[in-house]
Design goal:
four-stranded parallel beta sheet, 31 helices, Ubiquitin-like (UB roll), globular, Isoleucyl-tRNA Synthetase, domain 2
């Protein structure tokens, strides 16, 4: 039959597998799966309990990272991970597992809110429309999700429990001795009984309600504080660090972003820093992701040192306490709370002009520099290449090891977000401090002996000398000397001295900061928090949850002059006075009282911090999750000491934030006894990205990829030559290909096979629509091996296959099994293709055992055609729950293998030998071969290297 004349082929083969046939088969089987609940995973109890025999099987919990339902819908790059987890889940079902695989929607977010701001349409309307569209697109791909378990984070019955979890965190504190979270009521009881001293020395009874609240706020795992934030007046909201560009502007709208202090909710994730680090060791995650988390948490050992100033102290954290004698000045972050306190009214006598920044007073200099620093992002401030800037505060601190008075500066390269927001500057041995000292004409003192020939006079150096393996010099005082010690010994000695003097101690510091948890937006979970007349925060009781979003007339936060940093947020919720001001009885014995609601909303991360738990027990209105159900699906077990999801697939871009936040919430819930698994995700797999060619005109603007004409290796759009580059796929780049377009032309099974066959799952790969046809032809050949294209009749025969076919079959079974288990879907498809081609080339009717095994092999990858062929082969049960074929070892091992024989490094013979041949036997066979004898030509043999069964290397004398 001619494949070059489709019209003739259709007439000659009315039962050929075509796009139209694929569409009919796929739609029909999707309806059957839905009607039969084919993918329903039974729970051990509850409303999703099912066949106890299925529950008795080993379980497998497979998850995708939460998708955000965009109004633009999916392009073919989006389903890559969803198809992969579907293939894996199907394979696990066929290997005897009770598989939980479903998908929900992370539906709070900025795009829907921005649309609401622009159009006045409620974000729920556009979000639900986007969800419905995405569900339709995903259904067409034949994904085997348990739809009973699906939900969206915007469902009140879902975010009731997000709010409930927030309440648990708010009402908890971290007990450093027990290394776990405990109810805040236990801490109150300790304060009341005197078992634990109240900070400040007063008794608990002597504190007012507001004072008690302030004390507890220092311990709560969720707390409100005046936090430095990224304030964007042009957008009227606070931005997360990842929403600010490197040049200090908003990613959305390109408005200036300033550092400001605002009352914000925070999560005390820092309390879990050690556990977040340690437990990574037991997780089956890519090492690159573990490294990113370790770096983000940033554990470092060093010392806390107090530098006296005006009867108080500036505290620094340093990892190089061995260089204290080399500290010649201090630098505070511009936002440091002590800056104003220690800034004098006038410049001290003898102040260098370069220190003042040209200002008449220290206060003027500090204020001007703070304003300048507030307009920069943290990335800008930390840039190594930029010129060092700063101003003298007018204050001097005392270096505690030698009594020297050293000037105190503020500079933007020091951040409040790391350490104490203050550093001791040792310019001889820190590159940034060296540059700053040169710029401000500050002393540079060598205290670590250089290993090169520069000498110890640091005033002659071109840059700092940094070493962790050198001798300490010029470091001695009245009662302590480090001279001659190595770095490690010097650290230990000075740390002991600091502790003995009561001016410091050895300590551990973390780069990790507490999680800023407030957003000045409408479309997010409302906080279950109200404030009384004294401004004390109270959590709502569970009976008042969910606290639903009210209707508002205007969805936008109030915006301001983009350059006016002296402004503060006005949120959409704050304008709904009837919702904000309420009278409630919180059940605390005080009766009905007036309260004011929190008018910020939670960040979009909140809903994705715990969704793996809701999938387990999605309709439970009484508990977050039933303990027995959680234990069944996620509890610790052999090889998974911390429990968690068995396979979690998503992009590497979530390496830190989402994954770290979810781990934190799991640990708090575990500590409080709500779940048995302290980790949410045991195995993590990062899929690559499907890329596409982007075509740009002379202005650099993208032009539609579908309209490109290629001529002699060049690319043209409307007659104009354009440039081609490989990049992301998306609507904005005008290169998006929709799944529907491919399904209409080839069918969903073809799309599934192509995406899985493009290359290793964890590697990015370019999309090529022209190459899709290759997988389409594989399915057509598969169809022809079972179905007569002219009559539609099944052509398989009830006969035993020959040995060659048996070997091809069982090698395919063995290889495909291993590949599917290892997520190597591209090589699994190659092995299925090889077996299918073997049957095609044989030219005879396919034996039934081989045909059925072939259908089962491809079933996880192309489920629709597999269901159809399984039914045509006479079976009435779905292929989904059939047993995956098992290879017969007798046919997996080759009868013979090819052994290469080399003489002087050149191949002289190829021998067909048994795979089990011994080294001695193989050597005899090789030396007796005619071609080898001729190659040696009577020469003696100095050495024979044998690597049975595949290599013999002969070295003549």
């Amino acid at each position: 039959m001619s494949e070059t004349n489709p019209a003739a082929a259709e007439v000659a083969a009315p039962h050929r597998y075509t796009a139209a046939v694929a569409a009919e088969i796929e739609a029909r089987w999707q309806d059957v799966w839905d009607a039969d609940g084919t993918y329903a995973a039974p729970n051990p109890k509850g409303d999703l309990a099912g066949d106890p025999g299925l529950v008795a099987k080993p379980k497998k919990y497979v998850m995708d990272m939460f998708p955000y339902p965009s109004g633009a819908g999916l392009h073919v790059g989006h389903p890559l991970g969803y198809i992969a987890t579907d293939v894996f889940a199907r394979f696990q079902r066929m290997t005897g597992h009770n598989v939980l695989h479903t998908l929900g929607f992370d539906a709070f977010g900025l795009p829907a809110e921005q649309h609401a701001v622009q159009t006045g349409e409620h974000p729920r309307v556009t979000t639900e429309a986007a969800i419905n569209n995405m569900k339709s697109q995903l259904r067409r791909l034949g994904l085997g999700h348990d739809k009973r378990r699906s939900f969206a984070t915007i469902d009140p019955e879902y975010y009731k429990w997000t709010q409930w979890i927030f309440v648990q965190i708010f009402n908890s504190w971290y007990d450093d001795k027990a290394k776990k979270a405990r109810p805040i009521s236990e801490l109150v009881a300790r304060f009341e009984s005197g078992e634990r001293a109240v900070p400040g020395g007063r008794s608990w009874d002597a504190l007012s309600a507001a004072e008690r609240a302030d004390v507890l706020g220092e311990y709560r795992l969720a707390y409100a504080s005046d936090a430095p934030v990224n304030w964007c007046p042009g957008l009227g909201t606070v931005l997360a660090n990842e929403e600010v560009t490197a040049d200090g502007r908003s990613e959305r709208g390109n408005f200036p972003v300033f550092k400001a202090k605002l009352r914000q909710w925070n999560m005390r994730i820092t309390a879990y820093a050690d556990r977040l680090l340690d437990d990574l060791n037991e997780l089956d995650w890519p090492e690159a992701i573990k490294l990113q988390q370790r770096n983000w948490i940033g554990r470092s050992e060093g010392a806390r040192v107090d530098f006296p100033i005006d009867g108080e102290a500036i505290t620094v954290f340093t990892t190089r306490q061995d260089t204290l004698f080399g500290a010649t000045y201090m630098v505070l972050a511009p936002e440091h709370p002590l800056v104003e306190k220690f800034t004098p009214a006038a410049w001290p006598e003898g102040t260098h002009d370069v220190w003042t920044g040209g200002h008449a007073t220290p206060a003027e200099a500090v204020a001007a520099y703070r304003a300048q620093a507030a307009s920069k992002s943290d990335v800008e401030r930390q840039a190594e290449a930029k010129d060092k800037t700063g101003v003298f505060t007018g204050a001097f601190a005392t270096n505690p090891v030698n009594g020297e008075q050293i000037p105190v500066f503020i500079a933007d390269y020091v951040l409040m977000g790391y350490g104490t927001g203050a550093i001791m500057a040792v310019p001889a041995h820190d590159t940034r401090d060296f540059a700053f000292a040169r710029a401000f004409e500050l002393p540079i003192r060598c205290v670590v002996e250089p290993s090169d020939d520069r000498g110890t006079d640091a005033s002659t150096w071109d840059d700092a000398f940094v070493s962790y393996d050198a001798k300490i010099v010029n470091s001695h005082g009245e009662d302590v000397s480090l001279d001659g010690l190595g770095v490690t010994d010097a650290k230990a000695r000075i740390t002991e001295w600091l502790q003995r003097k009561g001016i410091g101690e050895g300590t551990v510091n973390f780069r990790l900061r507490d999680w800023l948890f407030s957003r000045q937006r409408y479309w997010g979970e409302p906080f279950p928090i109200v404030y009384d007349e004294d401004g004390i925060a109270h959590s709502l009781p569970e009976s008042m949850l969910p606290l639903e979003l009210p209707e508002v007339e205007d969805y936008s936060p109030r915006t301001f002059d983009p350059d006016d940093a002296d402004t503060s947020p006005e949120t959409p919720l704050s304008r709904n006075q009837d919702w904000v001001d309420v009278t409630l009885d919180l059940g605390d014995g005080r009766g009905p009282r007036p309260y004011r609601r929190e008018t910020n909303t939670m960040p979009n991360w909140a809903g994705s911090c715990w969704y793996e738990l809701r999938y387990l027990d999605p309709h439970n209105s009484e508990k977050l999750v039933d303990p027995e159900i959680e234990q069944y699906w996620m509890g610790p077990r052999a090889g998974q000491p911390h429990g968690g999801v068995d396979l979690y697939v998503g992009g590497a871009e979530h390496a830190v934030l989402h994954l770290l936040y979810a781990r934190f919430w799991s640990k708090v819930l575990y500590d409080l006894g709500h779940i048995s698994s302290p980790e949410p995700f045991h195995k993590l797999y990062n899929q690559g990205m499907i890329q596409a060619f982007v075509y740009r005109d002379s202005r650099g603007f993208p032009v539609p990829a579908a309209e490109i004409e290629e001529r002699d290796g060049a690319f043209f759009h409307n007659g104009e030559q354009v440039k081609r580059e490989l990049g992301k796929m998306g609507k904005s780049l005008k290169n998006a290909v929709t799944p529907e377009a491919i399904c209409e032309e080839y069918g969903a099974d073809t799309l599934r096979l192509y995406e899985m066959a493009m290359g290793p799952l964890d590697v990015s790969r370019p999309w090529d629509t022209r190459a899709v046809v290759g997988q389409y032809r594989l399915l057509q050949r598969l169809w022809r091996n079972v179905v007569d294209e002219a009559t539609g009749e099944v052509t398989v025969v009830d006969a035993e296959p020959d040995e060659t076919t048996l070997r091809a079959l069982h090698k395919a079974i063995d290889g495909v099994r291993q590949d599917l288990e290892g997520l190597r879907f591209n090589t699994a498809i190659a092995k299925v293709t090889e077996l299918n081609n073997h049957l095609t080339k044989a030219g005879a009717a396919v034996p039934r055992p081989v045909a059925e095994s072939l259908v089962l092999l491809i079933a996880p990858l192309a489920p629709h055609i597999a269901e159809e062929l399984w039914r045509k082969l006479g079976h009435t049960d779905s292929v989904v729950h059939q047993e995956f074929p098992v290879a017969d070892p007798r046919y997996v091992v080759d009868e013979t293998v090819t052994c290469v024989v080399q003489v002087k490094g050149k191949v002289k013979a190829r021998l067909e030998v048994s795979p089990a041949i011994s080294d001695d036997e193989l050597e005899k066979v090789a030396l007796a071969d005619e071609k080898v004898v001729a190659a040696l030509d009577g020469a003696g043999i100095r050495k024979v290297i044998v690597r049975a069964p595949k290599l013999v290397n002969i070295v003549p004398a």
